[in-house]
Amino acid sequence: MPLIEELPPSVEATLRQERNGHGDEPPALAVKADIGKDGNLGERWVVVDAEMVRVLTPNGTRAHVDVEVPLSDIAFARTENLVGGGALAVGKGTDAVELVRFTTPLQGRMGSVARTIEALAKDEEPPVVSLDDDKRVCKKCGRPLREKDDVCRACIDKRAVLGRLFAYAAPHKAKAVALVLLMFAGTAMTLAPGVIIKNLTDNVLLAENRTLSARHLLLGLLVLAFIGTQLAGVVLTVVRGRLSAWLSQTITYKLRTEVHQQLQRLGLSYYDKRQTGALMARVTQDVQELNHFLVDGLQILVVNGLTILGIVIVLLANNARLTLLVLLPVPLVIWATRRTWRFLWRRMHRMWHLRSSLSARLNASLSGARVVRAFAQEDREIDRFNKRATDLYEANLQVEQWWATIFPGLNFLMTAGMFIVWYVGGRQVIGDVITLGTLQMFLFFLGQLYGPLQGMTRIADWLSRALTSAERVFEVLDTEPDVKDEPGAVAMARIEGAIEFKNVSFGYDKSRRVLENFDLKVEPGEMIGLVGHSGAGKTTIINLLSRFYDPTEGVILVDGVEMRKIKVNDLRSQLGIVLQEPFLFPGTISENIAYAKPGAAPEEIMRAAKAANAHDFIMRFPDGYDTEVGERGTRLSGGERQRLSIARAILHDPRILILDEATASVDTETEKQIQEAIARLIQGRTTFAIAHRLSTLRNADRLIVMEKGGVVELGTHDELMANPEGKFRRLVEMQTEINKLRAL
Amino acid sequence: MENNFATSAAAEAPPEPVTPVALSDARYDLILLDPSKVRLFRTGGTTVRMALDDPQVGEERSYLKVSVARAFPLSDPEHYIGLRDGADKDIGMLRSLEGLDAESRAIAEEELKRRYFLPRITRVREVTEEFGMTTWDVETDKGDRTFIVHNLKESVNELTPTRVLITDMEGNRYEFPDIRKLDEKSFGILQRVL
User: Fold this and answer.
1) Residue ranges per domain, chain A?
2) Which of B67, B97, B115 is the last residue of a domain?
3) Is 70 exceeded by the pLDDT of residue A256?
4) What ipTM score was computed for the predicted complex, to two decimals?
5) Which of B86, B115, B144 is the last residue in one of the domains?
6) Confidence band (pLDDT; 50, 70, 90) for B10?
7) Are B76 and A602 an interchain contact pair (Cβ–Cβ within 8 Å)?
8) Distance from C-alpha of A206 to C-alpha of A198, rounded to nearest angstrom
9) Half-sphere exposure in the Cβ direction for B148 (13 Å, CA)
């Protein structure tokens, strides 16, 4: 059984004693609640075995039994939503007994507990649920996550992610190898001048034992070599830069398209659990972050690393003692740089925060200018703005001044190595331990060392950010679409439209069912109206029908075939949906109507528009069917959008049609036009319609009144109206009353 | 109703795509008029009148005021011309102006020309940019013109890679029917700005 947590010894012991030999089988359910008897945070346990529900509070080595209810007494179990938490109660007859209270995070789990207890009491098969909760913490280390299913920055297997990232370079192996070689060669070119300087000093400038002409010759050669290495360095950098740009952009492009492709394939349930913004960030920001890292980060990492390594090796080979002395301040510089960044970061964050809060205020007061004037609050707005501006001024000033103070200090630290070289190296030159050339070389390399070192202090952060992004991207790529063709899915070229719901139950998350044992049989061409309060389960039926989700239990049959066994594409292509808020893509009107049938002939498009009562208003636009709609284009009214979406559905010619509040939020005249359009649209199609305005469902063959995930009334309009006690009749009467009021 | 429709269209049309919806009411049927049954005329003034004898609409109808409009003025200007009554309601569509008698056709063409004022840019003399506004000095088939475009990126509509519409600050539109056919200097300026 999944709903079992490990009992603490005290509870375990007491429980054994309580049960007193009555069955020693493990409990059927054992979960911890997190509010104690006294109403403070504390631990309490709900344990259910075959006979009894017990609530225990651990108390030292023993536990106190707070509540005991025999399963046979229990009529129902439910959770109650309270503020900041909830309560679990079981019912005996008409009365209820509270078992435990708990905080909000446990709400979902306790819902499952309630259903399990109820099932056990009724001797039914308990629902399949599990403890795995949806807390926003990392499963491995328990650190909090920014959003659910986010990637934990501490736990990612950096090597695996990096490896996978590099795998994208595999098809371009030759280029990647060339890139690495170029980096090596480039590093060698930046190190060469040091060696040349040494030779120049020792063998030319100070080599008084050689002939003048030999020295001149060598001087010329060395300067030429100098020029040569520098030129080669430039060429290598250019080639390397171009190659690396090509590689990184190619990989980024591939990642970006792959992620988007995957997002298009994933079922809607994937989108439910995540915000569109967060998903967009994965396609744009995360990929961008990776791109940055691949273009710059990786190069800096490798080139800097190689440079530092090269310098240290060359120096060590020349004079180990001096080298070690020179490197003495390095840890200090690294430490100071990191501290500085952290210090400045915090202040910069504050500055950014203030800046955005300033513009938010500005936005509010300017866009609300009318209200500000109306209530004569100009002075207050001025004050508020001034206050924020002052804060920003101070924060800015602080950052700038710290910046101006810290960096000279850091620079001084970095030159500390220089003093050592001059003093210690100078003594060694005087003592003839090293040549002047070696000293010159040390000075040169020292100057080259600190830039890369500083860069490397920030690379760790950079790397970790990039890898987190990579992991997020890979997470999307690795997600299996939850609605997909099963092996052996059958093609269904033409659906007749017979639909049957058989004992269908469904919940968007496992702990809460929004549809319970729903049964319905629909004939081809029948129109079914769905009525009920929001949350009654109407939209869920439509989501299941569109196979955006699969039912948790039960089956849906289409023409006698289980929906799951029909190819998703065949099903969806014969399904049309007209939504309350029709979505128009940026593009022309004719493109939007033909969205589901690209390449439709102009006449087909116009015919559909005419049937949808849209032709006339479209022709009134200066650009007719070529009118641009969407963000950049002409603004269409709700009714116009609605009719375009009906035209789209007509052209799509679906066998099953879904109308979701298609006439909400339009005026009466427009509603009439839409009604006419719909009346023509539904002919010969199995139609499911949701409407708040009950009058619009008059044409429905049957109406279903839903409440709390179940059917409470079913029948034709007239049948339902004939029942004086009926819910539907009451709803209609209420609406009529309201309409009368409106008419007054 | 549908039969009538079929006979009138069969004369010139390629095979009809199957109408997916069972239509019961002529008001919601797309009416493609038989051009031989349409006669446009004027009675001294500029108002266009029409006599129509198409069974889809009714027998021997006459309209005191008629206007013409293109369904696809940008993507397919030569086809699907709508005839609209005095209340700006659809009377019916013509597949094209072909098949109209000479006088009607002349009137229709005149009216279309009147309705769609879209200067075609034939030469770009100069484009200067300042503060995000571009000033265009151009020659068009309707005369020389200087106009200012604000926010160029959002004012340019590339219908095809070679056919470009540009909307100025005041909402006037100008067309480059084919930028490749511009002279070299104009093309160069365009390449630079767009």
Assistant:
1) 9-121, 150-319+436-441+454-482, 525-548+564-743
2) B115
3) yes
4) 0.76
5) B115
6) very low
7) yes
8) 11
9) 8
